[in-house]
Specification:
220 residues, alpha/beta, Rossmann fold, 7-stranded mixed β-sheet, 8 helices, binds S-adenosylmethionine
């Protein structure tokens, strides 16, 4: 692995905006799935189509929230060996913990995406869904994901697409949201991933109502 991807960086989780993001999600954890039902079922469907998992797959979801994606994954019978659900919000991840308490393929961690404490090359697939816009140190997250993937491992990332008319909407969301809002265009995201030596396998962007999304599937 290139030396620049080894961990040297110390992320400071006490920064006020990260705490604000954490608290904001913990506050809304109970009503999150109902409030965002259409948005979530649309985006989760898009990601599920891109996951090519096998019964041997080790998977990390960097910001798993309430584990709703994994609920659909189980309903569809998509195989995997182990799934680590990570999130900084105890409230959000608490819902996931309850949901999967009797399935020992799941484990749970509370770590900042900027500094993930797993050994190099731990995962066959990494998911980052509806969350990249919340990260402050985005280049760091991309480096961490690269470090954690096994060779040929896949990253599937879906998020708001800060381009065209959606830039105005993004500006408004940022104005009124207590969370870190730091979204990117599909192009900015793929440039970032290429810089971290990922190969881009798929890149698409589309509108869903007044939301504009991108999905990128990239390989180590
Ligand atoms: C919009 S929710 C998406 C949750 C889930 N992926 C989904 O699609 O339902 C964003 C999640 O990112 C988490 N998050 C925000 N900043 C984070 C960070 N720096 N590291 C890890 N998770 C973070 C939040 O706590 C929240 O649960």
């Amino acid at each position: 692995m290139p030396a620049r991807f080894r961990k040297s960086f110390r992320f400071n989780p006490d920064h006020v905006s990260d705490k604000a993001t954490q608290h904001s999600y913990s506050r809304q954890a109970k009503e999150y799935e109902q409030k965002w039902e259409k948005y979530l079922s649309h985006t989760h469907r898009a990601v599920l189509k891109e996951l090519d998992l096998s019964p041997e797959s080790s998977v990390l979801d960097v910001s798993a929230g309430t584990g709703l994606l994994q609920k659909s994954l189980l309903e569809k019978g998509i195989p995997f060996k182990e799934m680590v659900l990570n999130d900084i919000s105890e409230g959000m991840l608490g819902v996931a913990k309850e949901r999967f308490s009797d399935d020992d393929r799941f484990s749970f961690t509370h770590q900042y995406a900027e500094q993930l404490d797993f050994p190099d090359q731990s995962f066959d697939a990494i998911i980052c869904l509806n969350a990249f816009h919340n990260y402050k140190e985005q280049a760091r997250v991309s480096e961490e994901i690269y470090r954690l993937l096994k060779p040929k491992g896949a990253l599937v990332i879906l998020d708001w697409n800060n381009s065209g008319l959606f830039r105005g909407m993004n500006f408004m969301i940022d104005l009124f949201s207590p969370e870190v809002i730091n979204s990117r265009s599909a192009n900015e995201m793929s440039v970032q991933l290429r810089k971290n030596v990922f190969e881009i396998e798929k890149e698409r962007e589309w509108w869903f109502g007044w939301w504009k999304f991108y999905l990128i599937k990239a390989r180590k």
